[in-house]
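Hi P.,

Sorry for the delay on this. The queue was packed all week, but I finally got your sequence through. Input first:
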Amino acid sequence: MQIEKTLAVSIRLILASSLATATLAAQAQDSTQNRVLETVRVSASAVDEDPTDLAASYGILQGQSLFERSQSTLGDTLNSLPGVNSDTFGGGASRPVIRGQTAPRVAVLSDSAVLLDASDISPDHAVTAEPLLIERIEVLRGPATLLYGSGAIGGVVNVLDKKIPDSLPDDRLDGSLGLRGSSVAKEKAGAFEITAQATDHLVLHAEAMMREADDYRARGLDESRVHGTFSESENASLGMSWVGDRGFIGLAYSYRDDGYGIPGHSHEYEGCHPHGSALHCGSHDAGGEDDHDHDHEHEHEAVPEISLLSKRVDLRGELTEPFAGIERIRLRASHTDYRHYELEQREIATTFLNEGYEARVELQHREIGAVRGVVGVQYTDTDFSALGAEAFMPEVQSRSIGLFAVEHVELSERWHLELGGRQEWQKHSPINDTRGRPEFDDSATSLSAAAIWEFVPDYSFTLALTRSERLPHAQELYARGIHLATNTYECGLVPHPLTCGGAENNAELQTETSNNIELTLKKNVGDMTFAVGVFRNDIDDYIYARTLDQFEDFRLIKYTQDDAEFTGLEAEATYRVSESLSATVFGDYVRAELKDGGNLPRIPAARYGTRLNAKLLAIAGELEYYRVNEQDDIADLEAVTPGYDMLNLTLSFDVLGENGPVMYVRGTNLLDEVVWNHASYLARVVPLPGRGVTAGLRVSF
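Then the structure:
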């Protein structure tokens, strides 16, 4: 079935649901002006239950803990959760890495809606989610990821914010103010958000933040500060909602303006290009001298920068009991106009543009016997283009539509079953492509099943099985050109010579299929709580960037398909010694191999550690230590990354009691270790920050 055949039906469903949500929410009357409405829990889970009860593995950051751990990028903010790492790229960009996978196999959402930035194109492109304005972050793994895309085999990061109010504020007004400063990058940051009730049902919201940071300090280099790791950001959003006693509908406009350096960027390989499967970086003249600059003449030039601008409109709505048989209907829709310039010597060298919209409707139905769950439809349409010196992709229009369902079955008090499925259609269409690269039009089917056994009270054992098909990203198909941020010349899956890589590396495109199994043991209640999980992903026709040739630090890569295996574990256990003292141990490990031999690149090393939390009167403290092992399970032409010890300490103080302002001081990398991140493209080029102290203040009202 072609995408066009389902598009009309899906758009009608989206529009009808939108109108129903708007009409019924507007008609809903609240007889008591100051009545506090029941909070609708907005979450990445399939149904409104505690996520510990579902067949999924969650990590959650929220509240004061999120504020204290927030960094300038989303990936760095999440780096402390079991199974979650970050593919850092200086001070301005990093993406979450979950179980060894990152974009496009990890989806980052804004309250269940796709961000529509360019972070899935390259690790030097920032994720447009601001940690200082986030209320809650949920990391989802397991069968329920099918709600958000069949390709999210690594996991889903759902970012929840307040920019569209979903309930009436207490006392008609609430908000918060946060200030932060850091020594390691001389960072200065501040954010505020305020929600006000204008009428009985109309609620307004405004928020903004600003951050400036210099190049950060690190050991391991000749200079104390890492050139090109500066960053600055400005964000603002205005939103409004109509809130009734059965739901809400609201609209928000968001504006983001970022500027940051691209460390490790080198011009010395600008003349490199492929000859078949070989990389050529020298003169074409017979017997001529190599025209590659071994003296690094660009070494002291100004570092390249990214200037990013994103304008976004979000529409969100929810309604309980819209009609018979349906408990809740949820609507998420957005339009994003994104662009960023890559600046060389303050001049625009390359422009990336991504304009698109998305709409998604979920229907949570009432119990049918012992079955309850969610069904829905999602449609995305984007137009991506790259213009200029590093235009390694043609302009591509991408459209996808997905139909999905996740059902939860109560077999008994002790046995639960979760079943999920997603059918997805995708089409990539190059526009005015001088090379004549073909359209891609295909479909994918993904299925999941999980059994949850509560074998004794408060303990559960979960077996989850997933068969997930992933369709290729436009970059994986059509890339052809130099990409200096990652020191690569990229060749897509489309056969040579339409991209590159030599005829001997041509292969018929297959659907990437991941067969996954996950076992999880949990205890959620009591002085001792824990979650231990093991997983294995057996992936046929895994798409990855295979190195064909290398010249110094520059590589010729060809997107290739081979069978692969990911095996790993995640564990966290907490013992509450008393009301004011608890101890936690945690760890994670992932091993990623090609079935024909060899390792996959940029896989994080094993990590394990402990955490102590204590509270005495108005003072709370956290001491965290973990060890990251040496990573010597490396791919061809990768380098071994040494291990390191990380020691962090946080102290917070309730200034005027439990509900008053909170001040905190956090010391990170207190041992001042040299830290190389193996998950980064800059693994042995740009170290992570050294010892630093951050101080902050948060006031809520």
